[in-house]
Amino acid sequence: MRPLVAGSFYWVIPVFDVDFTPPGFEGQPYSEEMYLAMRDHWSQKEQPARFRGYSETGQELWTFLGQADDNWPVSWIGEEIKPL
After folding, report:
1. How many domains does the chain have?
2. DSSP letter string over 64-81?
């Protein structure tokens, strides 16, 4: 496993958010259509995030652009994003 650099940005995929309600499905019961809309939403795809380091318990800490919850876990970490 390669070391992550605190303060650097990486391409990541967040852990799938099973509680996410995609736009247009508010107040509707869970369905196959809702699952497909959840899966295809941009928030469930590869995106940039800033690695903040590790918590006292060793948990990776991430900041996602435009997201309120800064400690969402990731399921995949891609390449570090370096400025040109």
Report:
1. 1
2. ETT-S-TT--EEEEEEEE
Give the side-chain half-sphere CA count within 13 A for 59: 10
**Does residue 1 lie within any of the structural domains?**
no
CA distance 22 to 73: 20
Show the tokens assigned to 56. Answer: 């006292």
62 membership: H or E segment, kind and range: strand 60-64
Measured distance CA(62)–CA(37) in Å, rounded: 25
pLDDT tens digits, one per residue of 52-74: 999 999 999 999 887 776 678 89
In a domain, 20, yes or no: yes
Q: Which amino acid is at 28?
A: Q
Q: How far apart are CA 74 and CA 9, in angstroms?
A: 13
pTM as predicted: 0.79
